[in-house]
């Protein structure tokens, strides 16, 4: 694993020395938006109009941020319009690779890249920063539209509605303020909190992260005992952003990232809620536990130096969730 500095790859693990043992996630560098007519979005340049077959999504099945974009691609009917390439689950000194010698890893038929970093250099030869997934690629202009999952899912939520006819809105105007509030807490303490816990290199940094993480799990358990979904009375973006973290909780975060005060299955409401979202049409096909379990345990040498893949519990995500009884 490493990062690009002026277009050149440097193999370095995360620097936690300058931050008192804390893992600090860097911000994404490509922030353009696809819009129905190519008008500029909230940031970046215009010229990225919604067109069938023009865009391509590069993901890892293991990565929770990439997972959100796969979920939106599925539930918004975008699979016929936006292609996908899947990296190999092992992320080693060259970063994410397009080796295809693993079931489900596709290689890169679009750009013929060997590594995800090659896409970044192709898009911007002097690029600096981490070569992360997801990457939303524009085949017409040969560049990266966006590498920020929270913005890619908002494009997918509405930009292609004219093409797909799917007008379901997971980011409804009247709920935006509350969704943002819930997202902020879940992002900081849970989506990113598991990483802050797992990548901490001091006891204090770990204690702070894992404490906040389980406070949020308790808060969610209570909230979901009274309501079916996080905000409003139907599924919103806030639910879809939470799901990838919950799916990975018991197989990965509990052991590998030391998030072990409780398991997900110890929270009855949160566990049933996870099953309901997993069973939503189209979602199951975006989940690949083989890549998830392999990636984390094999790639993070500083956490698991012998690269032993644990046996793990078998969880029945298809068990009835019973949440239809609950007032929405
Ligand atoms: N802000 C990004 C974060 C994406 C991200 O951190 N992806 C991880 C995989 S889970 C990655 O590619 N890491 C490689 C690295 O940090 O070098 C987003 O949400 O899209």
Describe the structure in your own words:
38% of the residues lie in helices and 7% in strands. The protein is globular. The strands form 2 sheets. It has a 4-stranded mixed beta sheet with strand order 4-3-5-6, sandwiched between helices. The chain has a two-stranded antiparallel sheet with strand order 1-2. The chain has 2 domains: 162 residues, Glutaredoxin (3-Layer(aba) Sandwich); 153 residues, Glutathione S-transferase Yfyf (Class Pi), Chain A, domain 2. The mean pLDDT is 96. Helix 1 packs parallel to helix 3, helix 5 runs parallel beside helix 8 and helix 8 packs across helix 9. Strand 1 and strand 2 form a beta hairpin. It starts with a strand and ends in a 29-residue tail after the last helix. It has 10 helices and 6 strands. With 328 residues, it is α+β, with helices and mostly antiparallel strands.
Q: Helices and strands: which structural class?
A: alpha+beta
Number of strands: 6
Query: Mind telling me the CATH class of the largest domain?
Result: Alpha Beta
User: Sheet bearing the most strands, described?
Assistant: 4 strands, mixed
List the total number of helices.
Answer: 10
Helix content: 25-40%
| Assembly state | single chain
In round numbers, the mean pLDDT is: 96
Spatial extent as radius of gyration: 19 Å
Q: Shape, please?
A: globular
What is the CATH fold-level name of the largest domain? Glutaredoxin
EC number: 1.8.-.-
Organism: Pseudoruegeria aquimaris
Protein name: Glutathionyl-hydroquinone reductase YqjG
Keywords: Oxidoreductase
């Amino acid at each position: 694993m490493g990062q690009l500095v002026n277009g050149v790859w440097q193999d370095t693990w995360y620097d936690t020395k300058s931050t008192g043992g804390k893992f600090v996630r860097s911000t994404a560098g490509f922030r353009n938006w696809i819009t129905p007519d190519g008008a500029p979005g909230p940031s970046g340049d215009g010229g990225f109009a919604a067109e069938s077959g023009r865009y391509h999504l590069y993901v890892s099945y293991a990565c929770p941020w990439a997972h959100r974009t796969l979920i939106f691609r599925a539930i918004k009917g975008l699979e016929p319009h936006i292609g996908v390439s899947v990296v190999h689950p092992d992320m080693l000194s060259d970063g994410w690779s397009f080796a295809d010698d693993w079931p489900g890893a596709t290689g890169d038929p679009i750009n013929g890249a060997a590594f995800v970093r090659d896409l970044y250099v192709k898009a911007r030869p002097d690029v600096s920063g981490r070569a992360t997934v997801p990457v939303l690629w524009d085949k017409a202009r040969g560049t990266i539209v966006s590498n920020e999952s929270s913005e890619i899912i908002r494009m997918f939520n509405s930009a292609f509605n004219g093409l797909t006819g799917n007008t379901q809105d997971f980011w409804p105007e009247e709920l935006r303020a509350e969704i943002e509030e819930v997202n902020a807490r879940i992002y900081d303490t849970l989506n990113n909190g598991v990483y802050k816990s797992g990548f901490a290199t001091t006891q204090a940094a770990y204690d702070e992260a894992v404490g906040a993480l389980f406070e949020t799990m308790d808060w969610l358990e209570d909230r979901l005992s009274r309501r079916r979904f996080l905000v409003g009375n139907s599924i919103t973006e806030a639910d879809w952003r939470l799901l990838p973290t919950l799916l990975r909780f018991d197989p990965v975060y509990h052991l590998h990232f030391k998030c072990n005060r409780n398991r997900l299955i110890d929270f009855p409401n949160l566990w049933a809620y996870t099953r309901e979202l997993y069973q939503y049409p189209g979602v199951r096909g975006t989940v690949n536990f083989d890549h998830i379990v392999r990636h984390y345990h094999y790639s993070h040498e500083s956490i698991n130096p012998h690269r032993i893949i644990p046996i793990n519990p078998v969880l029945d995500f298809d068990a009835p969730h019973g949440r239809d009884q609950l007032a929405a």
